[in-house]
Amino acid sequence: MKRIQEVIVVEGKTDTATLQQLFDVDTIETSGSGINEDILQQIETAAKTRGVIILTDPDYPGQQIRNKIIARVPNAKHAFVKKKDAIGKKKLGIAEARHEAIIEALENTVQFSDREDTLSWQEFLSLDIIGDHEKRDYLYHTYRLGHGNNKALFKRLNMIGVTKSDIEEKLKSYINK
Length: 177
Fold this sequence. Notes:
The protein is α/β, with parallel strands linked by helices. It contains eight helices and five strands. The N and C termini lie far apart (36 Å).
């Protein structure tokens, strides 16, 4: 069983149980939206000593939790499972996700940075992504940035240092599909 060095931040006990079926891993559970100061301090400590990977559910509450953690630990790594891969019989979440999707997400983590923007809003608009859900989803998938709207995509692309020419190159592959 593969050992993951970083501590993985998840929402609950069932997420931990699912991950421990797949990896030798330590987790911090946020108790869902009940994340509090004590949990945030645990995450900060883990980030300093071992590093952390945020793996929250691919839904709005999961994004809200992720945002709270980013505010405290901006150098955290991020793993994203697609919503379509995390739908169970009655629920949406990491515990319901296909095991292959979890493994892929953890093998392809991303780390955001607050450096200067590499892509302006005007350049982003010139790529004709606004209103084209398929193109937007393709870029989210290609750069492994989870899911979201145009504004979130713009922000995340900048956070990983993607330029307009990088996107144009990726979109050539999309067009040639």
